[in-house]
Every structure is written in C-alpha cells, then in structure tokens.
Write a structure and sequence with these properties.
Blueprint lengths: L1 E5 L4 H13 L4 E6 L18 E5 L5 H5 L8 E4 L6 H6 L2 H21 L4 E6 L24 H20 L3 E6 L1 E3 L8 H10 L4 E4 L5 E6 H14 L5 E4 L4 E3 H12 L6 E4 L14 H7 L7 H14 L1 H9 L1 H10 L5
Parallel strand pairs: 1-2, 1-4, 2-3, 4-5, 5-6, 6-10, 7-9, 8-12
Antiparallel strand pairs: 9-11
Helix pairs in contact: 1-7, 4-5, 6-8, 8-10
This protein binds nicotinamide-adenine-dinucleotide and thymidine-5'-diphospho-beta-D-xylose.
Length: about 325
C-alpha cells in the first residue's frame, strides 16, 4: 500500500508511521506535516528513505495537500491537528483553522484525487463529559464538546460524515481516549509529569485531581487504526479505548511511585476552565465488528513509558529548551508554521 499520513511528525502520527512500516514490508508512507511546535522530524529519524518521505506542508493549504496525493495513493490517515486543550483555551484560532478548515481541505483533495479511503483520527472529547455513574459513551452519543479543541474536532468529524453522506466518500472515523507512550510532547499530563519529576520540578495537578480519563498506550491505538483502516465500514465511527479509567490523582501517584518521587512534589494548581469530569468509552463496536482488543495493561504501559523518557533525555531536553525549533527554522525557513 501507499499511505499518506498527515501530522505524522507528531506523537501518535509518528508512532503510527513506525508501526505501519514495521507491520507491512510492502507499505510505503509519505508524511505531510507543517512541523508546528508539536511536530518534530526527530520522531521519524532512522526510517528507510526508500519507504518513507517527510514533506513539510500545511493541511490548510490546498496546494500542499494536492501535492502529495495522486491516483497511486491507497489511503490517507489524517492526524494533523492542534491537539492541546489548554492551548485552545488561550487561543482557538489555530484550532479552527487546522482542525476544521484543514480537514475540509483534506476531504476535498482526497475526493478530487480519487483516493479510495480516508481515516480521520478523532477523540472521545467530542462527546463532552460524563458524571461518575454514567454509562460510557457509545458512538451514537450526542456531541457536546466543551473546549475549543473538542469543538473543532467535533466540527471536523461532522464534515467527514457529511462528505461520506453527500459525496459517497469512503471515510471512517476513530474516536480514541487519552494516549500515552513514546514521543509525546511534554505538555500533556503523562510526559509533563515524568520529565518534571526527572528534572526535580513540581507536578501541577489541576483542581482536585479527580477528573477521570480513559488511558490507552499509543501502540494499542496504532493497531486499532490499522484494523479500522483495513476493515472499518465506510461512513462509520469507531470508539477506541483500553478500559483503563483512572483519575488524575491516581495516575500521578502511579507515576510518582515509578519515578520514586515524594508526595511533596505534587502541587494543586488552578483548575482548567470547563474541565471535563470524566471520559469513558464503550468499545463493543470495534471489538465485535472488527475483533480489536487492546494488549497493553496500564501498569505495564506506564512503566515502559517512564523507562523510555529516562532513556531519551536528549529528545525531551531539546524540546523543553526549544533547541529543536531553532534547528527546523534553519532547515526549513519560512515553510514552518
Ligand atoms: P500532536 O500535537 O503531537 O501532533 C500533531 C501533528 O500535526 C504535529 O506533527 C504538527 O506539526 C502537525 N500539524 C499541526 N497543524 C498542522 C497543519 N496545519 N498542517 C500539517 N500538519 C499540522 O498530536 P497527537 O497527540 O499526536 O494527536 C494526533 C491526532 O490524534 C489529533 O488529530 C488528535 O486530535 C487525535 N487524538 C489525540 C489523542 C491524544 O491523547 N493525544 C487522543 C485521541 C485523538
Ligand atoms: O499539567 C497538567 N495537569 C493536569 O492536572 C496537565 C497538562 C493536565 N492535567 C489534567 C487535565 C486532564 O484532566 O490531566 C488530564 C489530561 O490532560 P492532557 O494531557 O492535557 O489531556 P486531555 O486534556 O485529557 O486531552 C488529551 O486526550 C484527548 C489530548 O491532549 C487530546 O489531544 C486528546 O484528544
């Protein structure tokens, strides 16, 4: 297969590119990525240049997207997005632009090029928040996004479903819970807490820390994406989760035990506005229809993730210091977002 991956220099995208190249020797990948603050070509280092190419380009620019699509492309996997809720609260413009407009640009380009399949990678945050005793979200749950990030992803999902209904576009959507694992930008809870702990800094817990998230290792997410890409029904949404609900305080305590840091390092800070209380996913559809089950238990996945950040200090220190941006500015100049 020939696959185009948008946002493949980010956290999940780069894990997916590695996974897909490892799983199928006959597949080649073109990554289209704007290398925003969250994109890092080092995440794709060491791949065989005969099977993988990085094109620096922006999904909001039709020419950039058309430039990587032709009749030989078998599928587009669309990860490119602004992905951090806190940043969407400080400024939502880039979220509306990349997540909503960029998705429409991708839809139009996929249709024009006659690409047989689009996989749009979405999130459980589009459903909104659950109360403690509520049943998990099914794919039919109404969309009630509360953050600008979640609203922009919900808008993108609706545009994808509209293209499938109106134009008969072969598109599938996945909605996954919170990912953790290697190459995650250290602004998200898990890598922020691990790298702060390794640096002797405080771990900032928002509000009372009782918000529940449904955690999945990124490698399980990638396998689920592979299954949906190959066998998902066109026009359908699939939840992806590992049934590992934890509140943030419990997750932080688990990380602190793995990192051998004391309780005094955890500080309660001002809560995130409109902080969703709980996410949980009903995953019967992907399990019953496509036979997908996750492999990696949370305890093992977190231990492996802590070990990865211990072993890859260079990678995250260059990000935290900003050195990686200076390098890309020198290499790609004004093409960078
Ligand atoms: P990330 O922020 O680590 O990576 C996003 C990537 O998209 C970066 O490489 C960035 O450079 C690129 N990008 C941003 N704007 C672009 C543009 N205009 N044109 C081209 N490339 C652009 O994000 P992530 O955590 O890897 O998430 C990837 C996708 O998965 C997103 O769509 C996100 O909504 C979704 N998702 C994430 C999670 C999670 O827990 N991280 C869970 C469910 C779904
Ligand atoms: O410093 C922190 N302290 C804290 O208590 C940070 C960064 C987060 N939190 C809390 C907020 C959330 O309840 O931890 C939880 C997880 O926060 P994030 O890592 O920012 O993730 P979240 O907001 O849940 O969204 C993530 O999962 C769904 C991804 O960023 C999204 O892209 C994905 O769609």
């Amino acid at each position: 297969m020939r696959i185009v991956v948008t946002g493949g220099a980010g956290f999940i995208g780069s894990n997916f590119v590695r996974w897909v190249l490892d799983s199928d020797p006959g597949t080649s990948v073109v990554t289209l990525d704007a290398l925003t603050y969250a994109g890092n070509a080092e995440n794709l280092a060491g791949l065989d240049p005969a099977r993988h190419r990085l094109v620096v380009g922006d999904v909001t620019r039709p020419d950039d997207v058309r430039g990587v699509l032709d009749s030989q492309v078998d599928a587009v996997v669309h990860f490119a997005a602004e992905s951090h809720v806190d940043r969407s609260i400080s400024g939502a413009q880039a979220f509306a632009s990349t997540n909503v407009v960029g998705t429409q640009v991708v839809l139009d380009a996929v249709r024009a090029a006659g690409v047989p399949r689009l996989l749009h990678v979405s999130t459980d945050e589009v459903y909104g928040s659950l109360a403690p005793g509520d049943a998990p979200f099914t794919e039919e749950h109404p969309l009630h996004p509360t953050s600008p990030y979640a609203a922009s992803k919900a808008g993108a999902d609706l545009l994808v479903l509209a293209a499938a209904a109106t134009h008969g576009l072969d598109a599938v959507i996945t909605r996954c819970g919170n990912n953790y694992g290697p190459y995650q930008f250290p602004e998200k809870l898990v890598p922020l807490f691990i790298t702060n702990a390794l640096d002797g800094e405080a771990l900032p817990l928002y509000g009372d820390g009782r918000q529940v998230r449904d955690w999945i290792h990124v490698h399980d997410h990638c396998r689920a994406l592979g299954v949906v890409l190959q066998r998902g029904r066109a026009g359908r949404v699939y939840n992806v989760g590992a049934h590992a609900e934890r509140d943030n305080l419990a997750l932080a305590q688990q990380l602190m035990a793995l990192l051998d840091v004391g309780r005094d390092r955890l500080v309660h800070v001002t809560d995130r506005p409109a902080h969703d209380r709980r996410y949980a996913l009903d995953t019967r559809r992907i399990q019953d229809e496509l036979g997908f089950t996750p492999f990696i238990p949370l305890d093992e996945g977190l231990a492996a993730t802590v070990a990865w950040y211990r072993e890859h200090r260079d990678w995250w220190e260059r990000i935290k210091s900003g050195a990686y941006r200076a390098y890309y500015r020198a290499q790609y100049g004004e093409r960078l977002s």
